Amino acid sequence: MKVVVNTTPIISLASINHLPVLEKLFGKIIIAEAVYQEIKAKQSHAYHEIEWPFIEVQKIEGYLYKELLLNQLDSGEAETIILAKEIDADFVVIDENLGYKFANNAGLKTIRTLSILLKAKEKNIISEIKPLLDEMIIKGRWYSNNVYQTFLERAGEL
């Protein structure tokens, strides 16, 4: 299975010490070089974890497309979408709304961090989502109250 992951999901999961959930669900993950550079730009969550063996860094070929996407997306999002298309990824994991919409419009199967947590719960990799979601919020992730409530209801935790 080929799964391309953007910056925010990696940082979010690393911030709560659950980055290995990606490995347990998908085996290996692929990140674009720009995602690697964004994570290595400052020593914070995922700075060291990005070197783990289940994470493969790949360069994109479509630099012309990147220039077009940079009008609306950041470098990591643009390269994530391009790389996912180039390698015919099974999934792309991207959280930002605009990047998510671009990836969907490009015909990619797109999921977000919360869906990763739900899938991990369904496969008994984690037992509860709410404590992890609360910790991600404490560590700087923001979710609207509506998203928070709706998602936890969907997970059967409210």
Structure at a glance:
This is DUF3368 domain-containing protein. This protein has 158 residues and is mainly α.
Structure write-up:
Strand 2 (29-32), helix 3 and strand 3 form a beta-alpha-beta unit. Helix 2 packs across helix 7 and helix 3 runs antiparallel to helix 5 (75-86). The chain is built from 9 helices and 5 strands. The strands form 2 sheets. It has a 3-stranded parallel beta sheet. It is globular. The chain has a single domain, classed as 5'-nuclease (Rossmann fold, 3-Layer(aba) Sandwich). It is mostly helical and 158 residues long. The protein has helices spanning 7-15, 20-26, 33-40, 63-69, 75-86, 97-105, 113-122, 130-138, 145-154; strands at 3-5, 29-32, 55-58, 91-93, 110-111.
